[in-house]
Amino acid sequence: MPRDTRCAHLFQRTAVESSSSAQIFSSCTRLLRVWLCLVWLSALVFPGQSVSAPLEASISEKIVEFTLSAVKALPIAQPATAQSPAPRIQIDLGSPDPRLQLTPCGKVEPYLLPGLRLTGSTRIGLKCSDGSTRWRISIPIKVSIYAQGLIAVQPLTPGTLIQSHHLALAEIDWASEDSPALTFMQAAEGRILARSVQVGQSLRQSHLKPRQWFVAGDTVKLWVHGPGFSISTQGEALSHGLDGQTVKVKTERGRIISGTAIGERQVRLSM
Hints:
By secondary structure, the chain is an alpha+beta fold. The chain is built from three helices and twelve strands. The termini are far apart.
């Protein structure tokens, strides 16, 4: 092929490629303009709060206020005695999953998730009740309740008979474990450890062996309490009476009933 002909073909192909690139660029520009218009229109049609990571300050405040109100009503958040100061509640709020793409919402509300505890490391629900999409998500949250409690001042092994010099009072997080924290020396002294306790660890009810109030064959006193009345009778224990556990008792009339061991040769009957 002559040199002039080859050059003409080359220029023609270059012109075609340049034209295609220009068309692609023009198409991309049009698509970008359309996308920007849609974003602008959605902001007009769906005004409101957006939920992202981290949470907006107004939403975070709403979650903390809601959680604090719910926690304050719990028994664990009440003072140990009438003279004790109220526990200090601390709420640490996490962030939603950053992969979530949530539509703007005019009204975002926190709510309690069924089946989850409200203290310790848990989650709180967040829902949109006024928006184009009624979404629901959950947010990680940690609720700590600080108050005085007993801690070990030396390593304690299972089987240890607890004495006052083993323990001291300190501020602890009551909500860090499910088992109740012990707050009075009288409740721990003379008890036997079922599990080891490390230095600085709070002493919990689950660390202690249950008290045995009586053995099978002992005569026990049966109590029935109700609004404005209290009835007692006697019976024979058919099993060992461990504190807080269910036991079977044979009444003086020979009837077999169940109750809860609550003290020295004492059983509480349910109504």
